[in-house]
Amino acid sequence: MYTILVRLSRRWLYLLKDSKVIKSYPVGIGKVATRTPEGDYTIINKVPYPYSYPGGPLSPFGTLWMGLSRPHYGIHGTNRPSSIGKMVSRGCIRMHNRDVEDLARYAGIGTSVKIRP
Known about the structure:
Layout (H helix, E strand, L loop, with lengths): L1 E6 L4 E6 L2 E7 L2 E2 L8 E10 L15 E5 L5 E3 L10 E3 L3 E2 L2 H10 L5 E5 L1
Parallel strand pairs: 1-10, 4-8, 7-9
Antiparallel strand pairs: 1-2, 2-3, 5-6, 5-10, 6-7
Keywords: Cell shape, Cell wall biogenesis/degradation, Glycosyltransferase, Hydrolase, Peptidoglycan synthesis, Transferase
InterPro entries: LD-transpeptidase, LD_TPept_cat_dom, Transpep_catalytic_dom
Organism: Paenactinomyces guangxiensis
């Protein structure tokens, strides 16, 4: 069974299997005014966001959205890769598109997500 652990102070997301870290990724998190909420959640949906046309612009959610059980929050890609590692979002957890796509291969609907300081 997989679990996702997000460490806000480190701006890093860890994928755990049986409590052992098997992958880790840098993330962008919420701004001071719109902090990423700490707590225990689950992934409730996964929505791909393809390019609007080949070579066209990406959605602000990058190539993939994974919604959390807390409404309006999720783990997603970005069309601004320079924002990774910074406090810039409205509370969501941003990842490089290749990283969120990799994470999604392991994290299915119902995967536990623990967001900690």
